Amino acid sequence: MPSVVLKYVMAASGAAMLLYLVLHMLGNLKIFFGAGALDAYSAWLRTLLEPAVPYSGVLWVIRVVLTVALVAHVWSAIVLARRARAARPVRYTHRPPVQGSYAARTMRWGGVIIALFVVYHLLDLTTGTLNPIGVHGEVYDNVAADFAPSHWYATIFYVLAVVTVGIHVRHGLWSGLQTFGRSNARTQRALKTFALVFAALLVAGFLAVPFAVTFGLV
Amino acid sequence: MRLHLKVWRQHDADDRGAMRSYDVDDASPDMSFLELLDVLNEKLTTEGEEPVAFDHDCREGICGACSMVIDGQPHGPEKATTTCQLHLRHFRDGDTITVEPFRAGSFPVVKDLVVDRSAFDRIIAAGGYVSAPTGSAPDAHAVPVPKDQADRAFTAAACIGCGACVAACPNGSASLFLGAKITHLGELPQGQPERDSRVLAMVAEHDAAGFGGCTNTGECADACPKEIPLDVISQLNRDYLAARRSRRRSA
Ligand code: SF4
Ligand code: FES
């Protein structure tokens, strides 16, 4: 697979997942309209486009698309990482990183951490297995139990994971725009700023929910 | 000035190589880095030791031969400066300076600091040219080129093929070099007939030579002594996609 094609695979699968993240984040904010609004939103996601598609149909389509995107993303990352290793068999004895941002340097390990978090997240709030309550459909109660002050370790883990996602998105979004050929000398700085602001808003949106629960705002 | 050097010594391609320490006591701030190595080599020769092998040619920053990584940075710490144009006044008396060859599997070490960069020649041979009928030079204004495009082509054409981008890249990718050539020829009318076949062939040769894939870290543009901007890689991606599309259309 040509290296340039790998970049497009990486960028397109990343874009699909990022779009999902934005919708996910906006959906989460329903919690600020009350427990009922959040639970109703979750129920609506399942009845969406009924009866044209069966119950939960849309959700399953999204899950399949996300799985394909994830596999493509991870696969291209692994191929690129292996090529990078092969391309520099002897390492420098002394080479401090100069330009690459912290975000760019932590894409690979950051990605692994995010993948582990997603596993936990699904077991927590999708299947309910690891949730203190874990009742299907009682979204508000599950979330409230998760981020209750007494369950602080889950909250901390969520916060760290979301920040890791933000760092990943910061480099990923900019990198994707560069890959899709939308960068030139004039727009480069603007694109980087855009990616930073975008990532910051995403993190803020995702963190609003656990913080609001922990501090009893919702 | 007194300088302590830690230099990579490797007898030949098969030798494992190691860092060795040397002291130079009589360096002058006005010397270039290559002259410092010349002084070191004179000392080593008189002491009956083998001099440090390094690549150089023009010593005026235009040929791209003087490849080495100084204090962890290809062509040293000064921005937009080749090793031969790097002067010792940018270092301090008593500094310890590490000197290593460019590290890339596609740039195997020949001896000490000298690496074989013929992989770049193969990439150029794959498509980095225009097939124009030669003969006497045409009139300069025979083919008009819009100013913006001429400027961009010129910026990209400043690439001297030194390989610092590869040396700096955490992925060992030559995408900045590739992008520079694609942009340089792609912005000019003379480059159009082979625009699609060029990018496909050059990317294929780049990958075949064992260079890694780009992940947009930007280390290359920072290390480039000719300040080739990162957006040439954007251009490379765009041209590559367009070439694949048009090949599919015509097939
Ligand atoms: S792009 Fe810059 S660093 Fe890379 S080969 Fe050309 S001049 Fe050297
Ligand atoms: S010797 Fe020619 S660029 Fe340095």
UniProtKB/TrEMBL annotation, chain A:
Transmembrane residue ranges: 12-38, 58-81, 102-123, 152-173, 194-217
UniProt keywords, alphabetically: Heme, Iron, Membrane, Metal-binding, Transmembrane, Transmembrane helix
Gene3D superfamilies: Fumarate reductase/succinate dehydrogenase, transmembrane subunit
Pfam families: Sdh_cyt (PF01127)
Localization per record: Membrane
Species in which this protein is naturally found: Pseudonocardia dioxanivorans (strain ATCC 55486 / DSM 44775 / JCM 13855 / CB1190)
Principal subcellular localisation of the protein: membrane
Keyword Zinc part of the UniProt annotation: no
Protein name per UniProt: Succinate dehydrogenase (Or fumarate reductase) cytochrome b subunit, b558 family
Record's keyword annotation contains Metal-binding: yes
Any one GO CC term of the record: membrane
UniProtKB/TrEMBL annotation, chain B:
InterPro entries: 2Fe-2S_ferredoxin-like_sf (IPR036010), 2Fe-2S_ferredoxin-type (IPR001041), 2Fe2S_fd_BS (IPR006058), 4Fe4S_Fe-S-bd (IPR017896), 4Fe4S_Fe_S_CS (IPR017900), Beta-grasp_dom_sf (IPR012675), Helical_ferredxn (IPR009051), SDH/FRD_Iron-Sulfur (IPR050573)
Example GO molecular function: metal ion binding
Entry EC no(s): 1.3.5.1
Entry-linked PROSITE patterns: 2FE2S_FER_1, 2FE2S_FER_2, 4FE4S_FER_1, 4FE4S_FER_2
Key words, A-Z: 2Fe-2S, 3Fe-4S, 4Fe-4S, Iron, Iron-sulfur, Metal-binding, Oxidoreductase, Tricarboxylic acid cycle
2Fe-2S ferredoxin-type domain segment(s): 1-103
Principal EC category: oxidoreductase
Pfam families: Fer2_3, Fer4_7
Boundaries of every 4Fe-4S ferredoxin-type domain copy: 150-179
GO biological process: respiratory electron transport chain; tricarboxylic acid cycle
Reported cofactor(s): [4Fe-4S] cluster; [3Fe-4S] cluster; [2Fe-2S] cluster
Keyword check for Oxidoreductase: yes
Catalyzed reaction equations: a quinone + succinate = fumarate + a quinol
Transmembrane stretches, start-end: none
Cofactor binding notes: Binds 1 [4Fe-4S] cluster. Binds 1 [3Fe-4S] cluster.
Family annotation (NCBIfam families): dhsB (TIGR00384), PRK07570.1 (NF005746)
Family per similarity comment: Belongs to the succinate dehydrogenase/fumarate reductase iron-sulfur protein family.
Alphabetical list of PANTHER family matching this protein: SUCCINATE DEHYDROGENASE, SUCCINATE DEHYDROGENASE IRON-SULFUR PROTEIN
Name this polypeptide is given: Succinate dehydrogenase iron-sulfur subunit
Organism: Pseudonocardia dioxanivorans (strain ATCC 55486 / DSM 44775 / JCM 13855 / CB1190)
